[in-house]
Automatic annotation (TrEMBL):
Pfam families: Methyltr_RsmB-F, NusB, RsmF-B_ferredox. Its main location: cytoplasm. It comes from Lapidilactobacillus concavus DSM 17758. S-adenosyl-L-methionine binds at residues 259-265, 285, 313, 332. InterPro entries: MeTrfase_RsmB-F_NOP2_cat (IPR049560), MeTrfase_RsmB-F_NOP2_dom (IPR001678), NusB-like_sf (IPR035926), NusB_RsmB_TIM44 (IPR006027), RCMT (IPR023267), rRNA_ssu_MeTfrase_B (IPR004573), RsmB-like_ferredoxin (IPR054728), RsmB/NOL1/NOP2-like_CS (IPR018314). This is 16S rRNA (cytosine(967)-C(5))-methyltransferase. PANTHER family: NOP2 YEAST -RELATED NOL1/NOP2/FMU SUN DOMAIN-CONTAINING, RIBOSOMAL RNA SMALL SUBUNIT METHYLTRANSFERASE B-RELATED. The active site is at 385 (nucleophile). It is found in: Cytoplasm. Residues 170-446 form the SAM-dependent MTase RsmB/NOP-type domain. GO terms for cellular component: cytoplasm. Its EC number is 2.1.1.176. Specifically methylates the cytosine at position 967 (m5C967) of 16S rRNA.
């Protein structure tokens, strides 16, 4: 059998991601593990998959107007055109004739070659006329949506919330390659010692500007290092590392982590606790298979002695725990994840306004259910990896209206961090420190 080319593999993978709503990173890892590809081809497939998803709407804008009833075309043609245009516009080193030839070869293998002429005609046309000039789009929302490849409804919501200028700056950041980032596991090693041992292994290694336990690198993959297997570090975005310090933990605290899987924050919380003083974090999740990941992570990071996992819908905590039992509670709520668009570019197209409309109720229900379980003077931290007020500030406002025995207190961080907007509610945006978008609010029970 003829070996499949990198471009053919990228087209097939992208088709599957879109049709079956799969995660790009998981699908790509699976492909890279199962196909026998050279290093060059591995890089090319990775670039084609992420780049094409990132710029999808902008790429479509460049061909759709030349094709009648473009929406009726089979998905594989749309994907093939996107992958080809991505190479024409973004990859300087690939000659145009090679891109067109390969697209032609792929088109011949599908649907009995029925669409080969169309694919060739569209690509020749775009090659002759070049990329569209987006500055010509007079409507601001549409211009930003196309330029940065963001669905129009989402661009509209962001402009409404943050204004056009901030939205543009944020969106420009979203399509930049993110730095790799990891949290040092201080249970096993100090940051300085780990940096020394990582030495030359990773390019452009640096300490985080947000967290005293964060490290970043220009490229590379922290999860492939021996230090990862040894539990000296774990992969985590710098923004997520701000959650555990905001709980202001003490060694003997009883902590509830209401939505814990896969355990990034549970294990960070655990690093502040001392099992000999009775310190413990109970990690809940609605899915048992995800809790297995929390257990695996706790074992690898050497904190199993202070982590207890339990399958439970956090809205049902009443069945399991007495009121005022915990010193600290974290609700790292299920959310739209729109703050993660840099690392998961497909999120922006997979989420629709109606999916998001249902989330605030679930978020508020979880927060309200667990709030009774914290002691007087104890803290409940609410966090999400999204940037929409409906899932963040509005949830907090609705909670405070119903729970007059709680007040908002400032979010404590170990390092000086600047953010715009309400200073009591921490909303980090992707362009602030080139991290994921993240929200944290700290609620204190006052009686
Ligand atoms: C944002 S993720 C948590 C990430 C995690 N805190 C970490 O740092 O690795 C939200 C989690 O909430 C879980 N979840 C969703 N609904 C839930 C519910 N009603 N009760 C408990 N967990 C829930 C999901 O399965 C998911 O694992």
């Amino acid at each position: 059998m003829q070996k499949k080319s990198a471009r053919y593999l990228a087209v097939t993978l992208l088709e599957g991601i879109e049709k079956q709503h799969r995660y790009a990173n998981l699908s790509l890892n699976h492909l890279l593990q199962n196909e026998d590809l050279s290093e060059v081809d591995r890089h090319l497939v990775t670039r084609l998959v992420y780049g094409t998803i990132q710029w999808q709407l902008r790429l479509d804008y460049n061909w759709e107007s030349f094709v009648k009833r473009s929406e009726d075309l089979p998905l594989w043609i749309k994907v093939l055109l996107r992958v080809s245009l991505y190479q024409l516009f973004f990859l300087d080193k690939v000659p145009a004739h090679a891109i067109l030839n390969e697209a032609n070869e792929i088109a011949k293998t599908r649907d009995h070659g029925r669409y080969t002429k169309l694919v060739n005609a569209v690509l020749r046309h775009v090659q002759r006329h070049g990329e569209q000039d987006y500055q010509q789009i007079t409507d601001t929302e549409q211009r930003l949506a196309i330029t940065h490849s963001m669905p129009l409804w989402l661009t509209h919501r962001l402009i409404e919330q943050y204004g056009a200028e901030k939205t543009e700056s944020m969106l420009a950041q979203v399509n930049q390659p993110p730095r790799a980032s990891a949290r040092v596991n201080t249970v096993k090693v100090t940051r300085d010692d780990l940096l020394t041992s990582l030495g030359e292994e990773l390019p452009d290694l640096a300490t985080s500007r947000l967290s005293p336990v964060g490290i970043t690198a220009e490229g590379g993959n922290f999860a492939q290092l021996i230090q990862f297997q040894q539990g000296q570090l774990t992969v985590q975005d710098e923004s997520s590392m701000l959650v555990a310090p905001s709980l202001q933990l003490r060694p003997g605290d009883q902590v509830l982590d209401a939505c814990s899987a896969p355990g990034g924050k549970t294990t960070h919380i655990a690093s502040y606790l001392d099992p000999h003083s009775g310190g413990r974090v109970i990690a809940l999740d609605i899915h048992q298979h995800k809790l297995d990941l929390v257990d695996d992570n706790a074992r690898r990071l050497g904190v199993s002695d202070r982590v207890v996992t339990k399958e439970l819908d956090a809205r049902r905590v009443d069945k399991e725990f007495k009121d005022a039992y915990f010193d600290r509670i974290l609700v790292d709520a299920p959310c739209s994840g729109l703050g993660l668009m840099r690392r998961k570019p497909e999120i922006r197209y997979a989420k629709h306004e109606q999916d998001i409309a249902n989330l605030p109720k679930i978020q508020l229900d979880i927060l309200s259910a667990v709030a009774r379980k914290v002691k007087v003077n104890g803290l409940v931290v609410y966090s999400t990896c999204t940037i929409l007020a409906a899932e963040n500030q509005d949830v907090i406002q609705a909670f405070l209206q119903k729970h007059t025995n709680f007040e908002l207190v400032p979010v404590k961080a170990a390092q000086d961090i600047q953010w715009s907007g309400d200073q009591k509610q921490f909303q980090l945006l992707m362009d602030d420190y080139q991290t994921d978008g993240f929200f944290i609010a700290c609620l204190k029970r006052i009686n």
